[in-house]
Amino acid sequence: MLKKLSIQNYAIIDEITIDFSPELNIITGETGAGKSILMGALSLILGERADSSVLVNTQKKCFIEGTFTVDAKKQVTAFLQENEFDVEEELVLRREIAANGKSRAFINDTPATLQQLKGLASLLVDLHQQFDTLELGDSDFQRQVMDALAGNETTLASYQKAYQQWQTAGKELMALQQQKTDFNKELDYHQFLFNELNEINLKENELEDLDAELKLLSNAEGIKTTLSKVYFDLKESEQPLVQVLKQLINQLQGYASYHPDLTGVIERMQSAQIELQDISDEVDRINDAVNYDEQRIEFINQRLMEGYKLVKKHGVQNTNQLLAIQTELEEKLKAVLEIDDSIAAKEKQAAALFTEANTLAEKISKARHKQVNPLAEKVNHLLTQVGMPNARLKVELKETALQASGKDQIDFLFDANKSNRFEPIRKVASGGELSRLMLCIKSLVAQSIDLPTMIFDEIDTGISGEAAKQVGLIMKGLASNRQIICITHQPQIAGKANAHFFVYKEIRNDAVKTNIRLLDQDERITAIARMLSGEKPTAAALENAREMMN
Q1: Per-residue pLDDT, 138
Q2: What is the pLDDT of residues 8-37, one digit of tens each?
Q3: 107-151 pLDDT, tens per residue?
Q4: Residue 208 and residue 190: Cα distance in Å, rounded?
Q5: Which helix (H) or strand (E) holds 97?
Q6: For residue 133, is it left (φ>0), alpha (ψ between -120 and 50) or beta?
Q7: Cα 542 from Cα 522, distance rounded (Å)
Q8: How many CB atoms lie within 10 A of CB 238?
Q9: Could you tell me how far CA 388 lies from the centroid of its own chain?
């Protein structure tokens, strides 16, 4: 519940602190006294956007702080833990607005985003204003009412998880099917390209190696002639170099003992002789291996022509790049074959998820159907109680395809005059009727779930007398299990308060300021009497006020 609300420098509020009762809190005051300003300040700690125009005194910042007791409420604790805020016995929400309009939000003194503030506030406060009655005609609100009464919270959470998984699987299935369609469009072309490369059956670096071999074969005759001459000069001429070198070595050896450096020279010449001998043998071997082969040349030319034609076609530079394209095409062709298996598996998964979601949706729908008649009967009884004896609510459920909230289309239909012509609420109900209807519905929903602090901002517009009294009784009943804060102009409602706050204007330092105070018993009687008969209440009005309070 909202334990305390502190406001500083907001509009014409200088500084006020309100300590609320845990039961029924009534706020009254003259029109224009500043009751709506209080709600505006409260809405800031509930996550509404800030406006620097609310700062009358621009020398200091605006400050709004709400202290809540949460009684270890699981949803609140889970929210704080998930968002890494401190979990304490009391929860403090704060907004600060600087003169430049910059706003800051805090949860338990930790900086927070407006989204976080709004999310947490929704677990703490249900703010009901005149214009909020419009959501009565909203299908999502109507669904929430039915689910609250049917106790569908847990089942609905499981359903929404299964539904989301089914939707995701369906999107993935469509993507696979589109992928298959795209594959099939290019399948023949990819197959043709792959067959071309597969048939030529190139090896790694083959074209480059063949190109080098062709150059060798094309120059085979010249190479053999040169190699034969080199071999002849080294070993078989009239004076072969190897033999000449051997003779020179023998000549020097006769004088080796006479000069110390000759031994080294002789050794180097012997090494050169051995090296020339090896060279001549290698030249002879190479010469034997080089042969002109016209058929081989013709084969290589044909192979190169086919290979380079594919190189040009695919816009690459070498054999290995062609082989990479062949591998890529092979993978695409395999993917075409494998995608059917993927589609079949995804279809099976989607079907299983649909079955799970549909089963949960049917369970939710059955629970909703059970509440259709009880809800209508209870609301209609309450409508009579609040001065609308001819009004009737009818709940209509129609089966639909699976959607995020189940498989039901929910419509609240309304007949204000027993005409048996039920129309959607948003089309036929007036503002006053909507306000009382919303109160009746919320009073029923509050019995089924743990609604947070409920705030009603002048929803009693258009009612008086006995109807206002009954609205007060309903609020009093609601307040037995939860905190209610109500701004009202109706004395019948004010008379039911556990705590009655009076909003007024005063002149302070030549400026008009809004203030609020908690009324004692006698002050309450006077305030309610003034609501009945004017600024100077009569004795009858005072007596009437006492009766209303009793």
Answers
A1: 67
A2: 888 888 889 999 999 999 999 887 777 888
A3: 998 999 989 998 888 888 876 554 344 456 567 778 888 988 898
A4: 26
A5: strand 90-97
A6: alpha
A7: 10
A8: 5
A9: 44
- The residue written with tokens 């099939």 in the block is 184
Task: Output phi, psi for 450, to 5 deg.
Answer: -85, 80
The tokens for 78 are: 């889970």
Give per-residue pLDDT as tens, 346-377. 999 999 999 999 999 999 999 999 999 999 99
Q: Is 17:4 a contact under the CB 8 Å cutoff?
A: yes
Interacting residues of 126 by C-beta distance below 8 A, sequence separation 6+: 442, 451, 452, 453, 454, 455
What six digits make up the tokens of 13? 């509020």
Nearest-angstrom CA–CA distance, 109 and 91: 10
Instruction: Answer for the pair 489, 543: CB distance below 8 angstroms, yes or no.
Output: no
Task: Determine the Cα–Cα distance for residues 136 and 425; give it in Å rounded to an integer.
Answer: 7
Sequence letter at residue 411:
D
Query: Residue for token digits 């009945």?
Result: 532
Helix 465-478 vs helix 319-385: angle between axes, to the nearest 10 degrees?
120
What number of residues does the chain have? 550
Domains of the chain, earliest start first: 1-124+452-468+481-519 (3.40.50.300), 178-338 (no CATH)
Q: Average pLDDT, stretch 431-444?
A: 78
**Separation between Cα atoms, residue 305 and residue 318, nearest integer Å:** 13
Q: How far apart are CA 268 and CA 476, in angstroms?
A: 123
Tokens representing 43 are 């809405």
d(CA 444, CA 309): 83
Buried b / exposed e along 173-188 (16+ C-beta atoms within 10 A)? beebeeebeebeeeee
The residue behind tokens 């000759």 is 262
**Structure tokens of 238?**
């009239």
> Which residue in 413, 438, 430 sits closest to 127, CA to CA?
438
Closest by CA position to 157, among listed 329, 430, 405: 405
Average of per-residue pLDDT values in the chain: 86
Residue-wise over 64-91: b if at least 16 C-beta within 10 A, else e?
bbbbbbbeebeebeebbeeeebeeeeeb
> Mean per-residue pLDDT for 427-451?
74
Would you list the DSSP string of 232-300? IIIIISSS-HHHHHHHHHHHHHTTGGG-HHHHHHHHHHHHHHHHHHHHHHHHHHHHHH----HHHHHHH
Say if residue 232's pLDDT is above 90. Answer: no
Rounded to whole angstroms, the Cα distance separating 382 from 355 reads 40
DSSP state of 62: E
> Which amino acid type is present at position 72?
A
